[in-house]
Amino acid sequence: VCGVNGRFAWLVEGGAGQDVGRSCILVSIGGKNVMLDCGMHMGFNDDRRFPDFSYITRNGRLTDFLDCVIISHFHLDHCGALPYFSEMVGYDGPIYMTHPTQAICPILLEDYRKIAVDKKGEANFFTSQMIKDCMKKVVAVHLHQTVQVDDELEIKAYYAGHVLGAAMFQIKVGSESVVYTGDYNMTPDRHLGAAWIDKCRPNLLITESTYATTIRDSKRCRERDFLKKVHEAVERGGKVLIPVFALGRAQELCILLETFWERMNLKAPIYFSTGLTEKANHYYKLFITWTNQKIRKTFVQRNMFEFKHIKAFDRAFADNPGPMVVFATPGMLHAGQSLQIFRKWAGNEKNMVIMPGYCVQGTVGHKILSGQRKLEMEGRQVLEVKMQVEYMSFSAHADAKGIMQLVGQAEPENVLLVHGEAKKMEFLKQKIEQEFRVSCYMPANGETVTLPTSPSIPVGISLGLLKREMAQGLLPDAKKPRLLHGTLIMKDSNFRLVSSEQALKELGLAEHQLRFTCRVHLHDPRKEQETAMRVYSHLKSVLKEHCVQHLPDGSVTVESILIQAAAHSEDPGTKVLLVSWTYQDEELGSHLTSLLKKGLPQAAS
Amino acid sequence: MGRGVTGLAPACLRASQLELFSPGAPGWPFGDFHALPGRRLCGRPLQIRQVARPGAGPEAAEGRGAGLSSLIMDPECSQLLPALCSVLADPRQPVTDDTCLEKLLDWFKTITEAGSSLLLLQENPCLLGLLCHVLKPQDLSPRVLAFSLRLAGMLAAQEDCFQYLQGDSSLFVASAAGQLLVHVLGLSLQGPAEGHPGLQTGDWPVCAQKIVSHIEESLRSAATPQITQALNVLTTTFGHCHNPWTQVLWVRLSPLVARLLEKDPVPAAHSLVDLLLSVARSPVLSSSSCGLWETLAQTLSHLSPTQAGPLALGILKLQECPQALRAQAFAVLLQPLTCVLEATAQAPGLLDSWDGTGGASVTVDTLLASKAACVGLLCRTLAHLELLQPLPQRPSPWPQAPLLGATVTILRLCSGSATPTSDAGGHLCAFLVGCVRVQRAALDFLGTLSRGTGPRELVTQVFAVLLEYLTSPDSSPTVLKKAFQATFRWLQSSPETPGCSDLDPHAQLFLRELLPVLPKRLCSPCWEVRDSGLEFLTQMIGRWGGQAGFRRALLASEVPELTEQLLRDPESYVRASAVAAMGQLSSQGLRVTPASPEHPGGQQKSLLAELLHILSTDSEGFPRRAVMHVFTQWLRDGHADVAADTERFVARVLQVASQDLDWEVRAQGLELALVFLEQTLGRPSSHCPYAVTPPVAAPPGPLAQALRPLCRVQLFEFAFRALFDCDRPVAQKSCDLLLFLRAQTASYSGPQGSGSVPEVASVEAALQRWQAGDQGQPLGYLEPEVVVAVLRSMDLEGLRGALAESSDRVEKSPQSLLQDMLATVGALGEDEADCY
Lengths: 605, 836
Description:
By secondary structure, chain A is of the alpha/beta class. Chain A is built from 18 helices and 30 strands.
């Protein structure tokens, strides 16, 4: 698809629409193939949850075809298919991610595996051992560190905000480069900073576009709203359930509640299920440099991730009387502890469930968010949901303003939008094209986009040719480009510029002469020799700067141009001038012919 | 598209796919009527039963649609469907979720596969309405259009009524359309061409002719994507249809395919290879004389060495194939290795005899052209040979020795220890030195080659190069892992000394050099290396732990001590592997107990206590799970530390495991409980511990006495709690255990204790509270009689049935899907696009 011809091709799998898609993008750049993210789709319970790798395997074995895999962050829609891809489909090459992603990714994969195996029909799922073996193939990278994947391919990570350890990646082969943003956030939040990239002017920027048309209200408003709702529920003696995934948003909400509880001096207990706080604490402490300035500053006095008010949850606590707030996994109420607590509390209108993220179809979370209040449970039981149901989006994606800001920062030649909804992407595409005057693409699932680039290709020049150029006496001057004639030889993927004589010699070719000829009719009753003489005199007077000669055989030459006069076979009053010239004198040849066509001056006659 | 999907002619119900029953009649599969509502057809109550049995049907085969198992549409769904169809047909109500449409298709598929697609259309005219509606040009979302197309294709593929296909070239862009074309081609020819194998394409139905000429046009095209599409359609066709008409098709198209080979470079080489292989695999085509083998031979010589590899491998995998072609194919695979041997001034040996068809210079050119080309070709070659090696149809004689020689040479070139003697060798050396990709591929292949034997000096070289890699500070973690794996395989394959079940002296010698290397790896700063080292160690002990030579070498090294230290590794994966390794060491009596002169009075913590500590305190699941595995194994093997006081051990472990947050630890606790139960009741472990079959001979002694140890270790409290565990696998396992136990108790002689009624009632009440989700008070000590009475009163079978259904069974039902899709319309706001 590409290589020295300078074309990119990429293929976008998943990520379309308002569902939690599988991010998986294949980029071919300068002859190298890189897979960006390897996400899974939470909405399916079969192989369709993983990207269709046959797109790649039809090009041969994965390990041979791909030069590397890059994972942008630990969310499952970006890394969930990784063990399947490496251990079940059989990719054996390197996988790059940042250090926090490397630490957290296996925890989420393990968490998800356990939920999946917990259900029926999930036998063909990756195992703990596979997760471990997959993680052994990971090469962790630091921010702004240029990592040489091989002699030609290099990658570099930039801070992306969004979640702990999230990164944007620049992929470079020779003079060609692509930037892949993964998910990113251009405004700092409670625990993370804003995404940043330097003016790297890539040929292509692949950016997520989840909020392609949205200008989001300030996060503060949403936070206030969240706290108000929790506070109200607790005040009226209700229990609040917040289903979350183990790591990420949960920590942000914990910081929020912890601070609020402290300020308001609230007494109702807050619990976090399954002992994950401990682990989260560990990683947030370990990767404190990845959090935002405020957290880093206050770290010395107080670690924001050591919560005074948030305690580990025990199953028995759910029956305790009085108000409480519980963070429980998993986040979509589809299994395990969060679902168990939900069933206990759903019947009481004083209670509340707050869904802080998207829920896929087929989960209880999806049902209650779409307004269903009578849920059929196992054994034809009907669970009536009387508790208050709230949805609060806390996802940290860049909004339209943020995306434009990033395009402005990186100054790409082309932009490609992924991970968004077609109609909204169309709007953003127009805006980007208008404002930045760059081409913007939005390929559908499985679609390949090819983009021409102008790569610089090194060409070797023969010493002989250079010497000859020098012999003309002009010294090289960087500011004055000069025209150099030669023959370009392409052999063994090498390019060399040599003199045409050398090229002929090297390639064992004979030289051919190419001459143009033309007949000009002149009204002249005199003899041929006289006509030739008249032509000679005329040209001699007109073409003063050229060498005009009258040869003994009666023909006339001007440089390489040869003119002979002949009698007309039918009309004795007309002479025919036969003009011929080489292609090097093409210009002079045509000038001369047009001169002769005008006839000879009368004065001489 | 307008004329794309028309003419759904009436089709007969296929009786063979329906089994008709009258309720109550013999064979009536369902207990009560409401479980599967009946349908009136032809005035008689009929039930349509799922023909495909669970686990054997198309769902299971494809692993799809597990949740949508209802094969006929129940009235609730029929009522919801029209509303949904009108939503789908309305461009103003966008469907926001692809997965719902996919799941909807799954459901329709299960219905049509049960043979009732016509019924589906007749009873749900809204579906036909939807299909007709989407054919009108309008601003319809591509999702709904794609959905409708696929639905139409699915319905059409079911019936013999797909009459026309519009030859719209736009159909040809996506692979889905290609699939549809194959379907249609196959269906259109089922009738006419089947009876007359000699029928030429000119006499084929119009739609088939259109498809064929479309494919021809594409093959003649100058655009590679179009050629690729055409080749892919043909690959699918020849792969799926083995009717005589495919031969007619191939005869007509093969000249066009052959013409592709004349182009330089060959366009869509991968797809071309796939097509040729699918033709070669087709029983209809490979047996006929249609120039297939010549085309394959020609292709092998035309493609570049890199492109020819997959074709060569495919040819060698064929069951039937001319010998000359096989030789040519094998030569293609061997050529790069021959070049390597020649470049390092070694006799290629047997490889020479396979390699007689030229093309060597092209291979040398590729190998020496650039680093990327060299690495790519070598990796592919090694991988292909690795796949070929274990196959029964691999070429014979198999050049084991030269292949070993070449692989060892490649590994040496990579490590820089080979001395090149020629220019080509120098080039190779420069390309390969430090190349991790080639190292990995070569080590994998080397491991595979351990299945065959080799001359003594070559095996010595193999061990030497492995040792070099295991010792080298330059080996990357992934390379080390492969080196460990290859080493284990070679040690495993080395012949045992006759008369003595020890390693042969050769391997012994190697081991003596290897064991000093291992400590360095166990102290590596990379957790990957420490872990791979431990995994290797565990394998080694498992295999040779009982052999004197190995034991001596191991005990003389620092390995056991270091392994114990790794129980406190900061990385949980390593801790888990250390637990497994220590468990093995201890089982084999290889754990170093502190020698009393050196540690006077130093009371070392027993390993049992150490592992119990890990089980109760480790923050990660992996080490805790590993401990449970070790404990179960120890109990099974009668490990000395366990046998000292088995009851105390079991009681303690169960108590800790029951508190664990990781359901896999709790499930493993049940496994341990089962082993104890089997040992206590005197029943030897059978292959299927849950098989509810009466024991062959009833063990002696009254029941109460036999059950008492189980009561003392509080096994029942643990099992009853697990029965109502919120994680289904735990509950299932417990249910199986209790069912097994109940079957066991039934066979006991003596008074069948019924227990005092009030006590039984109070236990039952407690269990009911647990089931309701209330954790409540512990049961405390239970008398065996009470346990037996409770066991008998429980509906364990019913519970097992309920547990067998997935926890989200209700949410996955078609009705739930339809409700969700309808509920979502308009409910989601602007900001709903989200990510977790």
